[in-house]
Amino acid sequence: xxxxxxxxxxxxxxxxxxxxxxxxxxxxxxxxxxxxxxxxxxxxxxxxxxxxxxxxxxxxxxxxxxxxxxxxxxxxxxxxx
Length: 81
Known about the structure:
By secondary structure, this protein is an alpha+beta fold. It is built from 2 helices and 4 strands. The chain has a two-stranded antiparallel sheet with strand order 1-2. The protein has a two-stranded parallel ribbon with strand order 3-4. Helix 2 (56-64) links the parallel strand 3 (46-50) and strand 4 (70-74). The radius of gyration is 13 Å and the shape is globular. The relative contact order is 0.19.
């Protein structure tokens, strides 16, 4: 894996930093699956993103709630953090 931190603008116009483009593509495609089975988000909710990786889930939550929620994102891997 390349240890250089790169920047990309996603199709939803959000900009993120990443180490592996394949991971970005995979995670972006998987985001709709994270809110299956009746999980909903509302403005003013609190989200704990444990194992946040590059923050794709946190970005999606923020977008869905118009940036009106609290997000606590934790990533233990120093290279990704």
